Prior knowledge:
Distance between the termini: 22 Å
Low-confidence stretches: none
Number of strands: 21
CATH superfamily of the largest domain: FAD/NAD(P)-binding domain
Structural class: alpha/beta
CATH class of the largest domain: Alpha Beta
Helix content: 25-40%
Strand content: 15-25%
Number of domains: 3
Amino acid sequence: MTGERYGLAVVGAGPAGIAAALEAGDAGLRVALVDAAPQAGGQFYRQPAPGLRARRPGALHHAWGTWRRLRGRLEAHIEAGRVTHLPGCQVWCLEPGFTLHTLEAGAIGADGVVLATGGYEKVLPFPGWTLPGVVTAGGAQAMLKGGLVLPGRTVVVAGTGPLLLPVAAGLAAAGARVAALAEAADPRDLLRHATAVPLGKAVEGAVYAARLARHGIRVRWRHTVVAAHGVDRVEAVTLAGPDGARRRVACDALAVGHGLLPHTDLAGSFEVDAEQRTPTPGVWAAGEVTGVGGAELALAEGEIAGRSAAARLRGREPDPAAWATAARRRERLRRFAAVLDAVYRLPGDWAESAVTDDTVVCRCEEVPASAVREAVRDLGAGDLRTVKLLTRAGMGWCQGRVCGPGVAAVAGCPFTDPGRPLARPVPLGLLAGQADEEEEREQP
């Protein structure tokens, strides 16, 4: 047990969490910045391990100047003792009274909490998606940013969402041959919403388009990956075009992703108000956990959450004028995020056309699509929980975090995160020890 108590605990050291911690620290609160990663920055600002001695880590990043400014401020706060950074700490439970239970540092108490736990990738199943060499798009990016390694020499990047562009551009710049970039969305949908795209985002898109062109990578719009082929690892993928024609592309790695989902394990899904407050008093949320919108939106939300928390935890009514600029940026970027949600989506018949009966949809429990379809067709399952009970899909190590959206799509039912009492796998000995401590406290 740490025995420490802070004015504010911030869970997650990505853009939103860092912004919240900095603002609260500026206002004089003593802040604990708790994060599962070994270094601050989150996925967006992920850096190589110090032992790799990367000479130009900024070459792999967009907006590296912003990160340098954030890192400088954070280091100053840590040195002054206003922010305590606790890296490598996995929070498995948030107890009423704002006690964070971590696997590595024991219990951490606070007067309030900002949840900035980010998001995680959504990957939908298709034949061959369990082959070695098939990684998520974000996983390929993490390998490159954090480990300075490529998932393969010849890579296909596929799926849907704005993440695919920087992944393909980054892999190509690092020396990989990107054999294809397959995007399921229709570019005409983007043009219809052109007036809702902020100028900065339009420039960012143009920069990535130029990088792709420089490396000879053409975006194959309205193309989806429908199969990966190989024996010991992926050797080729099949892409389906809008006219139904199929194209086989040789590769030794496939980076595939279908967007992001909020990481809500600690508190379940919720909405936030204009101050980023959740319905639970004393708990704020910022960044992808409130809805996926990118690093700039996360920074704006984190700033607002940190300023609001700093005022209210000291018994003062916050002045919204203090974060007016961040609020305007937040609203503009939220509108843009809504456009992206509308544009980047798979065809409605994807599950029927791409997922064969023998496709494994739950990797942990090795449940095929046929079992899910049988549960719906013959056993009357109409929701994800019933499918889970009848097929074991989602009962494995990941507890449905990876397979949930795919199982729901095959079952034809809505995907809803069921919520979990524990946010991380926890040793039984730890739970037993905590029960013993509670028993001791209750004794006279």
